[in-house]
Specification:
mainly alpha; 12 helices; globular
């Protein structure tokens, strides 16, 4: 998962030349190679400890690889036209992989510490307060709606799910509820508090019913980008409410995705839908209270 993620993030920046650099950078992030490891790899008595940077490292190196390859493109633009044929075959992939690898090895220890700290904090909560864990993981899903914080919570949920325990399934259910709420918050607010939104917003809000039920948090991004100070707190509160209630009701999901369409396999499905509805309504009311009614001309 991590090399593919990093590879396609790099490709979105630098087109196909960035793909190989992103793949290798993501693999290094997962394996945890460092610059210190290079100096001790041949010494059987002094192997450096590998520090996996996990998802956050793969996310970072995807951006870095794309930027590095784009910089190589600009630097190579001064070369003679007769060398244009070898640029995508030799210069971009070889130098791109080299510089991306060195970058990732340099930052791997730092990203590894951050990744371990986040996972350790979440795992520590799972043993003492499962409801609080649900609140935190679900709230993280709404913090940046598809960004690194959202994905960190999702990867933690899928890792817990892989343990094949009831607690792991409960964590996954809470994470999924947290990701479903933000689009539903937008959809409900644009439906029942029309005077807070323009006509274009109200039309766009209808799509968020489907996106929310499908666990596609990104449906709320345009609204959050337009008014982050009101939309984000409301969505985080709504998601945290849904995640906490999901844990409290003992809801558990063996599926890592699917939203409401996998309700048949979720433990306590009625309570799960209730938690989701309460979270969406709470977020909707908070958002609609924070937003001021528009004048007729603007509306």
């Amino acid at each position: 998962m991590l090399p593919i993620l990093a590879g396609y993030i790099a490709m979105s920046f630098a087109d196909r030349p960035g793909l190989a650099a992103g793949f290798v950078g993501g693999w290094i992030a997962k394996q945890g190679f460092t610059l210190g490891y290079l100096t001790t790899a041949m010494d059987a008595d002094a192997q450096a400890q590998l520090v996996s940077a996990g998802f956050l490292g793969a996310l970072l190196v995807g951006f870095a690889a794309g930027i590095i390859v784009n910089a190589l493109k600009k630097a190579a633009s001064v070369l003679p036209e007769s060398l244009d044929g070898i640029k995508p075959m030799l210069i971009y992939p070889v130098l791109g992989i080299l510089f991306t690898s060195l970058f990732m090895m340099a930052v791997n220890p730092i990203m590894g510490v951050i990744n371990t700290a986040i996972s350790g904090a979440l795992n520590g909560l799972s043993g003492t307060s499962i409801v609080l864990l649900g609140i935190i993981c679900a709230g993280m899903q709404a913090t940046d709606m598809g960004g690194p914080i959202n994905k960190a919570a999702y990867v933690f949920g899928t890792a817990a799910l892989a343990e094949q325990t009831l607690q792991g399934n409960m964590i996954m259910a809470a994470v999924m509820a947290g990701g479903m709420v933000p689009p539903l918050v937008i959809a409900l607010s644009t439906t029942f508090f029309k005077n807070r939104w323009t006509e274009a917003d109200r039309k766009a809000g209808l799509v968020n019913y489907i996106m929310g039920l499908s666990f596609i948090t990104e449906g709320a991004i345009p609204f959050a980008a337009a008014d982050p100070l009101r939309v984000l707190p409301a969505c985080i509160l709504g998601s945290a409410t849904a995640g906490g209630l999901s844990m409290l009701f003992g809801c558990a999901s063996p599926a890592p995705h699917g939203g409401a369409w996998v309700i048949a396999v979720i433990t306590n499905p009625v309570q799960y839908l209730l938690a989701l509805a309460i979270g969406a309504v709470v977020g909707c009311l908070v958002l609609s209270f924070l937003k001021k009614p528009l004048d007729k001309a603007t509306e």
